[in-house]
């Protein structure tokens, strides 16, 4: 670690109550370096898309907009026109480019087509010399929406610009369309050269190859990045989002644990598969929910902070009031979070492309296929202000009516144990949760009478410690989810089985000591985090492990970082069964000192 050497613009703490995402109280900070002279490119570590080096069949520029003083005003909405019929496509990639210069907090943004969310993203904090970045996301799963005409595209990014906060976010949104025929598996995700038989695959044109349907299908699945449950894009995507979207954004703003957002849906009785995809982000007093102590701690110590209510949160989904699914979201840290010096120019896991979460509702089709309205509800267990949540209901249709029945449906509430021990400002808070669900339902369609059984085990544990009169905070959170999906036919043969394993461990420590100058403090910060997701199916598999390890120190005054030093190491490993992609990035004080990519499978 280097000696702190960044001179950082001093900003007085302000009452920034209007900020959508930011709050003046730590650990959400504002940084601004004056050191760079040229605009710098920021990035999130991720694997390249198979389409990255391919010329698109066509390109549609959707929006060029500068988000200046956009707080409290309606989001930007423009007409959406699909690509012309002459454009041959099966793969669609959304590109979100942004640039910003000056002083500004990080912001949250969403992109929707007719209320269907395509991307949840957050911005990087700019510098005086400017920053820019690009997010590319395969949005082929929304093909049924993207191919329609007469729709609207909405982008919401609430920003505040004044004499102090000068950063305007300039955003360009476009869609790139590719035909499957044109896409080859790029070298970057092809295994070692020595494995010639595999290497040859990159030369195989996906749709027209003559090797046979099996390989053709296999390759296309991978190329389309369409693992379960989107092996094939849905026939219809119904937004479960705020009806006031055109004026206030399509996300539901959830203020507390009693705040249930609902929407009525009536689905076609030709539906043979249904998946609810949730988009989630947390802000304000819940931006760092995993570090929130109990309410009793805050009350007993007469603290003014609203960041409390314990450190367990879950997004819960109901159908007609009945619990059908739950998600403990990946704790995405925005670029003002914990120590903003960590996130330049590499941002935190998921900051530019927040993960969405799938709840397979197929076994619940028995509750939905009756030509009647049903109410989908979304709430946040233990949540405090505020969460931005919405969902897309993906539906797949058969050629004629299907019949369905839900046989077993056991989705219990999380069993939670809490231990709270504190004396004045020091203490320990432990929350443990467990849940085992099992849902079985059959669907009788033209494919036969197929039974889907979904079993799931979840373990959650959060241990939060406050030491040295509360000046040292440590959190150690673990979350594990194992889902098994088994589809059997009439005679009990398993025709598809899939296992999904998710782990989101997180450790954060923040130690605050008085600084040399009046009103300043020195904070020593650490983050250790992983996003681990594994899918194993019959012929498909995907293993992702993305780790980050950050250590740093900063001198702060109010919520402004005056100086500091930080190191961020990230380790990305991706294997989709066809090949591997690995990247190791090391950033010290904003300078990328190591960035190695390889296609060796470990
Ligand atoms: C900018 O930072 C680098 C090290 O990160 C340092 O060598 C250089 O002197 C700094 N430049 C200015 C103008 O402060
Ligand atoms: C955005 O700007 C580019 C470059 O100036 C232009 O080609 C494109 O048509 C613009 N898109 C829209 C939607 O205005
Ligand atoms: C992005 O939008 C700006 C206007 O806001 C435009 O000047 C610029 O050319 C656009 N860039 C691209 C690549 O479309
Ligand atoms: C579109 O793709 C199909 C199948 O690959 C092909 O037959 C057709 O000629 C293509 N059309 C155009 C305009 O390229
Ligand atoms: C487009 O939508 C408007 C309003 O929903 C409707 O009046 C119009 O007929 C639609 N046009 C087409 C071509 O579908
Ligand atoms: C399926 O839906 C259609 C159209 O809404 C309706 O006419 C039909 O009666 C429904 N069938 C069943 C079995 O509910
Ligand atoms: C993170 O860094 C700490 C301290 O350097 C080290 O002990 C630990 O093994 C690292 N963890 C990972 C996952 O790299």
UniProtKB/TrEMBL annotation:
This protein's record includes keyword Nuclease: no
Top-rank taxon: Eukaryota
InterPro entries found in the cross-reference section: PNGase_A, PNGaseA_N
Boundaries of every Peptide N-acetyl-beta-D-glucosaminyl asparaginase amidase A N-terminal domain copy: 53-406
Signal peptide from the UniProt entry: 1-22
Keyword vocabulary terms for this entry: Hydrolase, Signal
GO MF term set: peptide-N4-(N-acetyl-beta-glucosaminyl)asparagine amidase activity
EC number: 3.5.1.52
Broadest EC class assigned to this enzyme: hydrolase
PANTHER family: PEPTIDE-N4-(N-ACETYL-BETA-GLUCOSAMINYL)ASPARAGINE AMIDASE A PROTEIN (PTHR31104)
Name by which UniProt lists this protein: Peptide-N(4)-(N-acetyl-beta-glucosaminyl)asparagine amidase
Species whose genome carries this gene: Helianthus annuus
Upper lineage: Eukaryota, Viridiplantae, Streptophyta, Embryophyta, Tracheophyta
């Amino acid at each position: 670690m280097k000696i702190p050497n960044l001179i950082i613009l001093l900003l007085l703490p302000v009452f920034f109550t209007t900020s959508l995402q930011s709050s003046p109280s730590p650990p959400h900070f504002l940084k601004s370096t004056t050191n760079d002279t040229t605009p710098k490119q920021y990035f999130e570590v991720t694997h390249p898309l198979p389409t990255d080096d391919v010329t698109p069949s066509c390109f549609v520029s959707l929006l060029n907009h500068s988000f200046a003083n956009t707080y409290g005003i309606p989001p930007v909405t423009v007409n959406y026109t699909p690509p012309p019929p002459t454009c041959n496509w099966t793969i669609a990639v959304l590109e979100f480019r942004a640039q910003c210069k000056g002083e500004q907090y990080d912001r949250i943004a969403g992109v929707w087509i007719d209320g269907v969310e395509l991307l949840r993203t957050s911005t990087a904090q700019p510098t005086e010399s400017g920053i820019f970045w690009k997010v590319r996301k395969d949005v082929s799963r929304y093909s049924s929406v993207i191919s329609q005409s007469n729709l609207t595209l909405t982008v919401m990014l609430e920003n505040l610009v004044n004499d102090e906060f000068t950063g305007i976010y300039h955003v360009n949104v476009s869609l790139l369309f590719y035909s499957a025929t044109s896409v080859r598996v790029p070298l970057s995700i092809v295994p070692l050269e020595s494995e010639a038989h595999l290497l040859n695959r990159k030369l195989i044109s996906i749709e027209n190859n003559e090797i046979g349907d099996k390989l053709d299908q296999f390759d296309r699945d991978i190329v389309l990045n369409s693992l379960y449950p989107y092996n094939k894009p849905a026939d219809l995507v119904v937004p479960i989002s705020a009806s006031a979207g055109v004026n206030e954004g399509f996300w539901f703003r959830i203020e507390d644990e009693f705040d249930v957002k609902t929407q009525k849906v009536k689905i076609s009785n030709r539906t043979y598969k249904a998946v609810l995809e949730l988009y989630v982000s947390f802000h304000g007093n819940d931006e760092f929910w995993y570090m929130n102590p109990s309410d009793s701690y805050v009350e007993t110590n007469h603290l003014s902070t609203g960041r409390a209510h314990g450190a367990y949160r879950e997004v819960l989904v109901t159908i007609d009031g009945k619990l059908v699914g739950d998600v403990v979201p990946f704790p995405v840290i925005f670029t003002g979070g914990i120590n903003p010096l960590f996130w330049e120019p590499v941002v935190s896991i998921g900051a530019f492309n927040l993960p969405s979460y799938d709840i397979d509702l197929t076994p619940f089709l028995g509750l939905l296929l009756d030509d009647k309205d049903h109410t989908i509800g979304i709430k946040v267990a233990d949540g405090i202000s505020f969460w931005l949540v919405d969902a897309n209901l993906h539906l797949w249709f058969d050629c004629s009516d299907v019949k369905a029945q839900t046989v077993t449906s056991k989705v219990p509430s999380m069993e939670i144990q809490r231990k709270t021990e504190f004396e004045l400002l020091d203490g320990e808070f432990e929350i443990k949760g467990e849940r085992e669900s099992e849902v079985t339902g059959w669907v009788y369609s033209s494919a036969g009478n197929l039974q889907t059984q979904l079993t799931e085990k979840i373990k959650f544990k959060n241990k939060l410690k406050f030491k040295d009169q509360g000046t040292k905070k440590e959190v150690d959170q673990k979350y594990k989810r194992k889902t098994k999906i088994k589809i059997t036919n009439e005679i009990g043969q398993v025709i598809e089985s899939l296992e999904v394993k998710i782990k989101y461990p997180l450790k954060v420590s923040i130690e605050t000591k008085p600084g040399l100058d009046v009103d300043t403090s020195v904070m020593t910060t650490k983050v250790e985090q992983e996003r681990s997701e594994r899918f194993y199916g019959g012929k498909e598999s995907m293993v992702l492990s993305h780790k980050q390890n950050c250590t740093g120190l900063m001198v702060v005054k109010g919520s402004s970082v005056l100086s500091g030093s930080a190191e961020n190491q990230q380790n990305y490993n991706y294997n989709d069964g066809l090949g591997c992609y690995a990247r190791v990035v090391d950033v010290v004080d904003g300078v990328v000192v190591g960035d190695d990519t390889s296609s060796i499978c470990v």
